TrEMBL record:
This is FBXW5 protein. One of its GO terms (cellular component) is Cul4-RING E3 ubiquitin ligase complex. The gene is Fbxw5. The keyword Transferase does not apply. GO terms for biological process: protein ubiquitination. It comes from Polypterus senegalus (Senegal bichir).
């Protein structure tokens, strides 16, 4: 038995080995999963296999299985080509269960994927369908490539770059450039994000707009995919709000208003993608929400989750069973490295701090008003009672006033929206990154979008507020306890994957303008939007090196079975969603900024890098199918050549 590289393949990566079997008469046969699926008699002449079976000593199946248990999976595949008996034993389920857990180093407490039909097929899925073979490199961009996005049909994809162009590509077997638009004529510095609308007729492109005095903010452009004309432009501040589609014709943008040195409010607007004849008398914009920002933080990275897709049967994974298995595995083996678990809390309910009583010196007029927060009151009481000098830090006073306004001038959350209802009505959630302790994004805010808010009709400022309600409340806040550098939704929109770089355990932030140090390791959290809880342990393998005050966004993407992410270590990474294992590293020459699975074929993956390139990756199975089959040498001719050589 001999294991070598396939000499006739230019794309087989070093990690993929092809098994060779020395058969009688000097013949050589390649063993693959495709060949193992058929009986030996169907691949060649029946007489040859019968002769081979007569030459081999008869072994009991139990003894043969015991021998196979000590072989690697490549050797088992090769042995399956010998005869019918060996082929039958090589397909034993217990054998492939042992090979599966041993090869992928998975805890045996983790059950098999609920959609798997056999252990052999599950081994083949992880080994043969990962898009890890580089088949094409696109070099049309002339600067760092920042983002990639596929159309919902999978026929096109778009790329954004610091060369200030957005390019649309044809996703044919050989990918080709369809259109390129430069945004420099609109005073853009670069393009950074793109997204196709639901019916793939419009393309949202987000970029950095350079205004007077070189001040930068964001702008969103909408491009028609029929003739690639520009339909509209919308200001977007800050630029890393990115923007997103709410439905086929309406998009969400942001606007930032500073109230003080450390306090601001973010207003999220609903915009119609284009102004037609009917819209002359109908609003093209409407204010959705207005949120308060504390400690120099802002809302960033806006996306919409459609909860109607949660129960799509072809996308659900058995996470309940997996969670139970993870608890068993954790009880058996305790590791020293742990990931910080996000704390999920509801802003519609009172916290323990809010429920605590104030100081004894509080004035009676304040006690009668239950809406007042204790922070500003206690500060003023201390000044009145002489316990604190009247001259205080400006930032401290601003923070206390902002805290007071947030508690007394925020519209309370609708309690009915926070309680799961028996009636399954369509739901959409607005999801974004935010913060409360420092300016670096370390929390995820979630706000439900009501049906009457999904159109620009009605008042421009949205639902009327009372004179004392300045801000909207959030339905949920998830604290990640680290710097968030990426987010992505699963195809069914139930699970939110979050890249973050953890803060030191127990670190206390004393200055909002000095965020905590962050780890080089990137943790990928998995959040269930149905239960608002974290699922499973963090995924790890990728790394980042940018310091905490310069940290940038690294885009990730999720398919039915896999999740992929870029990294600053010049690699892209692919994990299996069910088993939590890293399956592949994809090489680039610089930082990998973005990855994108084809929505209709998860065996196709794109990666974009600071090395100015886009790489196209396909699975070994697809590459093998696309290659022409090599003709097998005839037995007589091969024997004659061997005799001549001798």
């Amino acid at each position: 038995m001999l294991l070598v590289e396939d000499p006739d393949s230019d794309v087989t990566p070093p990690s993929r080995r092809v098994a060779l079997l020395n058969v009688p008469d000097g013949g050589v046969r390649y063993a693959t999963f495709d060949e193992q699926s058929d009986e030996p008699a169907r691949r060649g002449r029946a007489g040859d296999n019968e002769t081979m079976e007569r030459r081999l000593p008869a072994l009991p199946d139990s003894l043969l299985l015991e021998i196979f248990m000590h072989l690697e999976h490549e050797d088992v595949l090769s042995a399956s080509l010998v005869c019918r008996q060996w082929h039958a034993v090589s397909r034993d389920e217990f054998l492939w269960r042992q090979l599966f857990y041993g090869y992928y180093r998975i805890s045996r407490a983790v059950p098999r994927h609920p959609a798997a039909t056999s252990w052999l097929e599950e081994f083949k899925r992880l080994y043969d369908t990962i898009p890890c073979v580089e088949v094409q490199t696109l070099k049309e961009h002339h600067d760092q490539v920042l983002h990639l996005s596929f159309s919902h049909s999978g026929h096109f994809f778009a790329s954004c770059s610091k060369d200030c162009t957005v390019k649309v590509w044809n996703n044919d077997p050989e990918i080709s450039l369809l259109h390129s638009s430069s945004m420099r004529r609109f005073n853009w510095g670069y393009t950074q994000f793109s997204q196709f609308n639901a019916d793939d007729t419009l393309l949202l492109v987000s970029g950095v707009y350079i205004g007077p005095q070189q001040a930068s903010s964001g702008e969103i452009a909408v491009i028609s995919l029929d003739d690639f004309t520009l339909l509209s432009r919308v200001r977007n501040k800050p630029y890393d709000v990115f923007g997103c589609w709410l439905n086929e014709t309406h998009l969400i943008s942001g606007k930032l208003h500073w109230i003080g040195n450390m306090t601001s409010c973010s207003v999220l607007w609903l915009n119609k993608a284009f102004q037609d004849v009917e819209s002359e008398n109908v609003n093209v914009v409407k204010r959705l929400f207005k949120f308060q920002n504390l400690n120099a933080s802002t809302i960033r990275t806006v996306m919409v989750a459609d909860c109607r897709r949660h129960d799509s049967p072809d996308l659900i994974l058995n996470y309940e069973e997996q969670r139970a298995a993870a608890e068993i595995a954790a009880a058996l083996t305790r590791t020293s490295q742990t990931c910080s678990v996000p704390h999920v809390f509801d802003l519609g309910s009172d916290s323990e701090d809010e429920a605590a009583s104030g100081s004894e010196g509080r004035r009676s007029t304040d006690v009668d008003n239950p809406n007042l927060g204790p922070g500003l009151e206690e500060l003023l009481d201390d000044i009145y009672q002489g316990r604190r000098p009247p001259v205080i830090n400006e930032h401290l006073l601003e923070a206390k006033v902002a805290e007071y306004l947030g508690k007394t001038r925020t519209r309370p959350a609708d309690s009915e929206l926070l309680i799961p209802s028996e009636v399954q009505e369509p739901k959409k959630y607005l999801i974004f990154t935010m913060g409360s302790l420092t300016y670096s994004p370390h929390q995820i805010g979630i706000k439900r979008i009501l049906p009457d808010q999904m159109t620009t009709s009605g008042p421009v400022l949205g639902k009327e507020r009372s004179t004392e309600e300045f801000f909207d409340s959030l339905d949920h806040v998830i604290d990640i306890h680290g710097h968030i550098i990426g987010m992505g939704l699963s195809p069914d929109h139930r699970y939110l994957y979050v890249n973050s770089r953890a803060w030191p355990t127990g670190y206390v932030i004393s200055d909002p303008m000095s965020p905590p140090p962050i780890a080089e390791e990137i943790d990928m959290h998995v959040l269930d939007l149905k239960t608002m809880q974290e699922e499973r342990q963090c995924l790890r393998a990728h790394r980042a090196y940018t310091p905490n005050d310069e940290c940038f966004f690294i885009f990730l993407d999720v398919s039915r079975d896999f999740v992929a992410s870029g990294a600053e270590d010049k690699h892209g990474y692919i994990w299996d969603r069910h088993y939590n294992i890293c399956l592949a590293k994809l090489q680039h020459d610089d930082v990998v900024n973005s990855v994108a699975f084809s929505p209709v074929d998860q065996e196709l993956l794109l990666t974009a890098s600071d090395d100015y390139t886009i790489k196209v990756w396909r699975s070994p199975r697809v590459v093998r199918i696309a290659q022409p089959r090599r003709p097998q040498p005839r037995k007589l001719l091969f024997s004659w050549l061997m005799n001549v050589k001798q």
